[in-house]
Design goal:
212 residues; alpha/beta; 5-stranded parallel beta sheet; two-stranded antiparallel sheet; 7 strands
């Protein structure tokens, strides 16, 4: 790397779908956060229970030429956070073989945001549950796999945390905490492969500076 090159810093964003404060979903997402931040990657965690996201009304106003969603809530700012981040972390416990309502309404609103937001993105899934049978999480895992495949987002890793019920149970499961760290390391590996870029200005030709 020459003196004019600078490494592009990777950013991550986490969306926690659990309505329970300090629950197992949040703990695992914070484990990922601390691991990537130790490697120099910034990561924010948004609690979906703490933001205003209205239900999609299927009016299709967002899909007419020049149209946009009729709802005036926090979804625009969340979409901007998605756009600015390179890797997304989605966390939801299993509720009745599905995701939480908070996670589902958030994903339903993807219908009304620009599809360019999904380009070149990667994701990590965090899915805690009380049950110990992998099949119980299969609908949630499958929902994410199908939805993210549809919009072209690559899943780096999936952490299914089995056998956790009470808030903090996951702290007694070292193998699950390690799985979260391992998932975070995959994000770090992606960061190390991200290309460097030259800043505009000194050291660049006029042609380079004028390119859009």
């Amino acid at each position: 790397m020459d003196q004019f090159e600078v490494e592009l810093k990777m950013k991550m964003i986490g969306f926690c779908g659990s309505p329970r404060r300090r629950g197992n979903t949040e703990i695992l997402m914070e484990m990922i956060q601390s691991t990537v931040e130790d490697a120099g990657i910034s990561m924010e965690i948004v609690g979906l229970a703490d933001v205003d996201i209205g239900f999609c009304s299927a009016c299709d106003a967002c899909h007419v030429p020049g149209g946009k969603c009729i709802l005036d809530d926090d979804m625009d700012s969340l979409a901007q956070k998605m756009k600015e981040a390179d890797i997304w972390v989605f966390g939801t416990p299993v509720y009745w073989w599905g995701p939480t309502a908070q996670m589902k309404v958030f994903m339903d609103r993807w219908y009304g945001i620009s599809k360019t937001i999904f380009q070149n993105k990667k994701a990590i899934l965090v899915i805690p549950m009380e049950d110990t049978d992998d099949k119980t999480a299969s609908h949630v895992v499958g929902m994410f796999q199908d939805a993210l495949d549809y919009v072209g987002v690559e899943i780096l890793d999936t952490v299914v945390a089995k056998g956790v019920w009470s808030a903090g149970d996951v702290k007694e499961k070292p193998e699950i905490l390690q799985a979260a760290k391992d998932a975070a390391q995959k994000a770090v590996s992606v960061s190390s492969k991200k290309p460097a870029a030259k800043p505009k200005g000194k050291g660049q030709s006029k042609k380079e500076t004028n390119q859009k």
